[in-house]
């Protein structure tokens, strides 16, 4: 009976795929059938090129700062991840996903630390509905030794004084929504990103207007400008936007546009 129910679900998914133009990988993730996928984001300003290691072996190599690697399939179960200087297997930093599962996306980030490098880990269960064409958005704070952040993704010209943050209280080395929870869903459209320290309405960063497409899958990472570590002040942070999917492209970098600073 379980096999019959799965076949019915797959047939329904195929019909929905034809109707809404989704990708086959997305359908597999939504049904929990797709092999787990992982990718790497080099968010360590000024860092050398690195190799991304899974269970001690290089999975992707020679990754430069701001580069976002292709998603790659990995096995389920306990998985150790790390990154090392290109051509070596001695980790700069390492971490662990204790129970990698089908249908999930995993992100590993090279992060700055007060000395050397650190690592960030995100388990994304990808609970998007089959009929949804909403964009998925998540934030990660890679600005070491700095205050917590509120991030607003709002229409251009919005006064945030009476608006709740889209991604609130993003702490260093953590994601919002947290690892293990699904992303925030938003309608496609034109937006700006505004960053404040948590519970403040004073912008320390504002992007130019950008388009968030339907079905986009964004990880918005705050990083310090190269050469700085902890200054959370106008002109001292950038946003890196890593878009989901097989890109092998650098994350798009948004510079600060706060005026008068």
From TrEMBL:
Residue span, DUF4397 domain: 37-152
Signal peptide: 1-18
Keywords: Signal
PROSITE patterns attached to this UniProt entry: PROKAR_LIPOPROTEIN
Keyword Signal annotated: yes
Listed InterPro entries: DUF4397
Pfam families tied to this protein: DUF4397 (PF14344)
Name of this protein: DUF4397 domain-containing protein
